[in-house]
Amino acid sequence: MSVKAKSLTKGEEDVMKILWTLGKGTVNDILEHCTEPKPKYTTVATFLKLLEDKGFAGHTSTGKSNMYYPVIERKEYAGSVAGNMLDSFFGGSLIQMLSFFSSEKKLSSQEKQDLLRLAQEIIDKE
Description:
By secondary structure, this protein is mainly α. The chain has six helices and two strands. The chain has a two-stranded antiparallel sheet with strand order 1-2. Strand 1 and strand 2 form a beta hairpin. Helix 1 (10-22) crosses helix 3 (41-53) and helix 2 crosses helix 3. The two termini are 33 Å apart.
């Protein structure tokens, strides 16, 4: 099953973000990087089990503990989430999504210049 068909809860996503940053780690390694209030050890272990079941993480056994690692790349998941949002809220229209965000969030001059440069790069590629 593809990433597109799966979604993560906030807790699962928080654990995945730490795994993507670390590259690999034990439950204790992940706990060290959690923000306050830190979840319980068993909560993180449960999230990791769920992430494995969903195909986002894997593990290798090292002694009495498991070393977890991401199976799905951050970019792949981000693309899936962004694509789902684009389809669900903006009818698949990137223009509608950009228009929404530009009206909801005041863009800096630099961000406007960056958007123009990106648009020109897209035009030049065609």
